[in-house]
Amino acid sequence: MNVTGVSKSRNIIPTGFYLEQNNPNPFRKLTTIKFNLPYEVKITIVISNSYGMVVDKLISRVHEAGSYELEFIGDGLPGGTYFCHVVADEFSYSREMELTK
Hints:
This protein has 101 residues and is mainly β. It has strands spanning 2-10, 18-19, 30-37, 41-49, 54-63, 66-73, 80-88, 91-99. Strand 7 and strand 8 (91-99) form a beta hairpin.
C-alpha cells in the first residue's frame, strides 16, 4: 500500500473543497484520487477498511490552493470495500472504494 505522489493537475483555484470518486472504481491495483482545495490548508487523507480501521495514511500536510490528484496502490490489501476519508478545515468527506483481486 502506498501513494505514488501528489501532483497539482490545474492552475485554476477551485471555489470549494471537493473529493471526486476514485477512478477506476472498482480497481484492481491502482486508482486515482482527485481533490480540490480553495485555499492553503492542512489536508489529511486516509484509507480505512469496512471496520473503520485505518490501513494507510496518504497525506497529512499543508497544500496550497488548487486541484490535485494522487495514485493509490492497493498492493497487500485483500479485496473488499474501503473508504477514502478527507479532512481539511471544516470540510470532511468520504468516498467508498472497491478493491477487486
